[in-house]
User: What shape does this take?
Amino acid sequence: MFESEPAFARRARRLCLLVIGTCLGASAWAQSEPPVVGCEAGGPLVAGNANTTYTTSCSRTPDTFTDNQLPDKRVDTYRTRLTGLLLGNATLFYDQEFALPFNDTAVQDGVTAAMAVLTSANSGNPLSFQTPALTGSQSSLLDSQSIATVVGPPLESLEVGIGETTGPEIVRIGNLGMCDAPLVTGTFAFPYVNGFNTVSNYPFGCVAGASGTYYDAAVIAGTINFNANLNYQYHFTRDVQLTETWELFETWTLVGVADPGEAGVPEPGALSMLLLGALGLFAHRRSRRLRRPA
Assistant: This one.
């Protein structure tokens, strides 16, 4: 429940003076990296008069984000298969893959190695080589992920909320932990130091878990408790970029061509011997014909 604004305002100012050490201490903490639960505060019942007590607590509500969508980013990777064969022979005498594009030095060295392998497969006889031909190409999406990067320090929102409890009742004080529920707007606002917002909100639905340290204080019958809660919230700006990783897989084929003039051509000495033998045989047959009687 909330009192009317004038009376509530007087009590709230008095309460904040009582807990100003806690509030300022929390503000100094806020200049550093915020922990899971954004506060360290809380205090026992403090008697204001015979019928009024004051307590303090703190909480944190979930961070908010403003995202700047950056242009998509593409990362290309390469895989190259290099094969080598002899013209007219389907056997792959050379078959090697490289995690590199075709024009990389290592792949070009592979072309040289393939020439040597094909020459050896041709019994060492000379070969001529065609320029490697692209015989297959395929692009595949390997990965896609959206990456958010925080830009600069967060904007901090500190709000002081005043809650009123009439006994007999239990009031939860200390570190209330993370409050997942929205803040409830109250009816009272008052100015505060260190840039605190002037809207008086009080959180609910808080779950302390392992990150908050709170305890319950009894408000006895016939008394009223006012609890000042300091709530933290952080607003982050992020750059968000979709990064896609693609693989370009290409197959290149090197063909070795044997010179048809190299096979079956006699050495120059052997050719001379054949010609001389042919001439001798012709002369011998002619001589026999001339000596034959009429």
Remarks:
- The longest helix spans residues 268-291.
- Confidence is low (pLDDT under 50) at residues 1-6, 16-38, 184-200, 263-268.
- The helical segments are 5-18, 20-29, 105-121, 268-291.
- The two ends are 156 Å apart (CA to CA).
